[in-house]
Amino acid sequence: MSETNCKDEEDTFPLHECVFGGDVRKLSSLLRTNDVTKKDKHGNTALHLAVMLGRKDCVQLLLAHGAPVKVKNLAGWSPLAEAISYGDRQSISSLVRKLKQQAREQMELRRPDLIRALEQIQDFYMELKWDFHSWVPLVSRILPSDICKIYKSGSRIRLDTTLVDFTDMKWERGDLSFIFQGDRPTSESLTVLDNKAKVYQKVRYEETENEIEDEVDILMSSDILAAQMSTKGILFSRAQSGWIFREDRKETVAGIYKSDVYTITGLVLESRKRREHLSTDDLQKNKAIIESWTRGNTQNLDTNGEPVRRASLNPPPETGVDWNVYISSPPGEYPSLGRELVYKESSRNFRATLAMSDDFPLSVDMLLNVLEVIAPFKHFAKLRQFIAMKLPKGFPVKIDIPILPTVTAKITFQSFEFRDNNPPHLFVVPEDFVEDPLRFPDL
Q1: Which residue(s) pair with 240 in the sheet?
Q2: What is the pLDDT of residue 34?
Q3: Among 298, 281, 323, 338, CA closest to 211
Q4: Residue ranges of the domains in the chain?
Q5: Which residues contact 191 (CB under 8 A, 6 or more apart)?
Q6: What was the pLDDT predicted at 5?
Q7: Model confidence pLDDT, tens digit, residues 100-114
Q8: Distance from C-alpha of 335 to C-alpha of 333, rounded to nearest angstrom
Q9: 408: enclosing H helix or E strand
Q10: For 121-208+220-269+346-435, which CATH class?
């Protein structure tokens, strides 16, 4: 690359170049007139570079100006992932706080449109059946099923379910209700009821300081994970039936909805793990700690009962890579700026079926709005992500979707009716329920 062209590219990314040079004063000045969200040719924002290079003052300054934390570079890594790799605890804590703040702000921006959309949908009652299965025989044998009941009235939604949470090998059953009250202030709009214990918990929008630090401990002690469902090569083709005379397969779902059945191919679950920030000793110790966390003991306490916080790592050696070398490299192929990556990749192809019906009364857009409300339940978030893809014509009355690398779910919309008489008491907390702010620690 010629010196002139290189200079042109330098001028294109002044924030990035400032971070490389560690020039905080100039960065502060440039932030008044430059886009803090801009990516360079490698997909990195200025915040990516600041955490990779250990420019702590730059990190704080960029966060103060709203640098996005969730954005990913060409390699698929976020600034938070790179901060964990570098290992500076203060920077990781700052990024976690900002990530949660930005998520709240995005939800607040979306909220008025969501409420309006819900109010425009006629009130209804709907049932979804979840059947979980796995290609691992022993896992498949113990996986649960669940019938979720959803009631909608105005801007209020109630979801009744018996499945609290699950992993590959264990799940928690219960009798739960999730209530969204769109006419209440944000801090009071989401509530989860444990109907057996007669307790409820408001879904909090802000974490305590201890919860933030607990999360930082977990992040610093665990693999850096990146998992995504790749739909680049996805194909929907009409499923066929018949041995000799082949014809497009049709199915009546739940005895009501006449459907065209499609085969889904090209759906790939890609996952990557990084662990350059973990020593061999870490890996052995952390296995026991993480097992303790999964049992609900989120803090490692010293003899005085105080949390033992994970310390910052020693900075990685200086690489000597300068701005010219970095920006002159082919896209995504720049030299390492921090620790040498230690990672492995895996992918799994999913083949699934999908039944689309024109008879279902709800539209896909309406369903997406409903699912956005109940997205704190992880498996519903996965369902929303799948339905947001460009599906064939109709409504997806039966779907196979991957939930975990070893677990898929078959979701069937088995009942739906518009109702204008859903009882008001369904959408409020019963008077004899007691608040328990710690009943659902993940919410």
Answers
A1: 248
A2: 95
A3: 298
A4: 14-104, 121-208+220-269+346-435
A5: 178, 179, 181, 200, 201, 202, 203, 429
A6: 37
A7: 999 888 888 888 988
A8: 7
A9: strand 407-418
A10: mainly beta
Look up residue 190 and give its two tokens: 């989401």
Q: Are the C-beta atoms of 237 and 262 separated by less than 8 Å?
A: yes
From the list 441, 108, 74, the residue with the least C-alpha distance to 294 is 441
Q: Report the C-alpha gap between 168 and 143 in whole angstroms.
A: 8
Kindly report each contact of residues 199-202 with a partner whose C-beta sits within 8 Å and lies 24 or more positions away, as own/partner: 199/433, 199/434, 199/435, 199/436, 199/439, 200/429, 200/433, 200/434, 200/435, 200/436, 200/439, 201/435, 201/436, 201/437, 201/438, 201/439, 201/440, 201/443, 202/435, 202/437
Q: Tell me the two tokens of residue 105.
A: 């702000």
In sequence order, the 6+-apart residues with CB closer than 8 A to the CB of 307 are: 210, 213, 214, 217, 299, 300, 301
**Check: CATH 1.10.10.10 for 14-104?**
no
Cα–Cα distance, 328 to 235 (Å, whole number): 37
Amino acid at 5: N
pLDDT higher than threshold 50 for residue 424: yes
Pairing outcome for strands 395-404 and 240-241: unpaired
How big is the CA angle at 325 (ends 323 and 326), to the nearest 5 degrees?
Answer: 65
Q: In degrees, to the nearest 5, what angle opens at C-alpha 424 toward C-alphas 419 and 425?
A: 130
State how far the Cα of 208 lies from the Cα of 212, in Å rounded to an integer. Answer: 6
The three-class DSSP label of residue 354 is strand
**Which backbone phi and psi does 176 adopt, to 5 degrees?**
-115, 150
pLDDT at 231 over 90: no
Would you say 85 and 338 are in contact if contact means Cβ atoms under 8 Å apart? Answer: yes
Q: Where are the beta strands (DSSP E) in 182-288?
A: 190-194, 199-202, 224-230, 235-238, 240-241, 247-248, 250-253, 257-274
pTM: 0.79
Strand residue runs (E) in 275-406: 343-357, 395-404
CA 387, CA 360: separation in Å to the nearest integer?
A: 15
> Could you give the CA distance from residue 34 to residue 23 in angstroms, rounded to a whole number?
15
